[in-house]
Amino acid sequence: NRGSALDIAAPGVDILSTYSCLAAGNCGYYWYAYMSGTSMSTPHVSGVIALLLQTKPTLTDTEIKNALYATADPATGCYQCTRWSFDGCSRQGQVTCTSDITGAGIVDANGAYLAVKPITPACTTNADCNDGLYCNGAETCVSGVCQAGTTVDCSGLNNQCNIGVCNEA
Predict the structure, then answer these.
(1) Residue 157 burial (CB < 10 Å; 0-12/13-18/19+)?
(2) Helix or strand (DSSP H, E) at 24
(3) CA distance 59 to 46
(4) CB distance 8 to 104 below 8 Å
(5) Using N-to-C axis directions, what is the helix angle for 109-116 and 38-55, rounded to 10°?
(6) Tell me: the pLDDT tens digits for 87-126?
(7) 159 — pLDDT class (breaks 50, 70, 90)
(8) N or C: lower Cβ tally within 10 Å for the chain?
């Protein structure tokens, strides 16, 4: 789809998806099909929004939109239907990409995540961290509980672990 109502683009052509056995005409098997359209691209954007809300549950609609739009990748190849048939577009031609075709651009999950990810406080000791976070030795407060007798979560703290809490030696 395209037009002034388009906000952002996402992968939506030839996406492998589950397919209704009723539509396939045989419910004795599991069905998959390559499909195209907004029904295939919408889950990509919805998934990115879910990731953002998991990362920072207090995000407002405006903050989510800003993160999506500001980090969208510009499209490099845009196409327009040049021949229609009874079952849809049968031939496409490349055209210049415009905001009417791509909106803000192509959704970038990692870019949007990094845009809303809370900044982790710097630390030099566990006392610099709060709310159950531990200083990982790389001057970053991290979550997690160390396992007694292991060094996995305490490598930056002289490998000392005591009853699930990283201790500095």
Answers:
(1) buried
(2) helix 21-24
(3) 15
(4) yes
(5) 20
(6) 878 888 888 887 777 788 889 999 999 899 877 667 777 6
(7) very low
(8) C
- Interatomic CA distance for residues 12 and 125, integer angstroms: 48
Burial of 39 (0-12, 13-18, 19+ CB in 10 A): exposed
pTM for this predicted structure: 0.60
Q: What is the DSSP string of 75-109?
A: PS-EEEEEEEETTEEEEEEEE---HHHHBT-B--H
Strands 32-35 vs 78-85: parallel, antiparallel or unpaired: unpaired
Determine whether 136 is exposed, middle or buried from the number of CB atoms within 10 Å of its CB (0-12, 13-18, 19+).
Answer: buried
Q: How confident is the model at residue 127 (pLDDT cuts 50, 70, 90)?
A: low
137, pLDDT greater than 60: yes
Cα 37 to Cα 106: distance, rounded to the nearest angstrom: 15
- Please tell me what DSSP assigns to residue 117: S
As given in the structure block, the two tokens for residue 166 are 């990283």
Helix (H) or strand (E) holding 162: strand 161-162
> What are the residues facing 15 on neighbouring strands?
35
